[in-house]
Amino acid sequence: MGELSRAIQQRLDDAYESLRHAHAVGDTYLVDIRQEEIKELRRIAANHDIGLEPSRCD
């Protein structure tokens, strides 16, 4: 796994963790922000043919 792949995977892991927390506390604004961040990171990965681990939060 290259540096870009690792960076994207780490950012996704962090975003999913934050998304779970936002759901738990009812922060709908942060939920929206994290969902958009996840969508953008997945788009970047797809554009660079980077395979990602399956999400644990979709």
From TrEMBL:
Protein name per the record: Uncharacterized protein
Organism: Actinomadura miaoliensis
Classification of source organism: Bacteria, Bacillati, Actinomycetota, Actinomycetes, Streptosporangiales
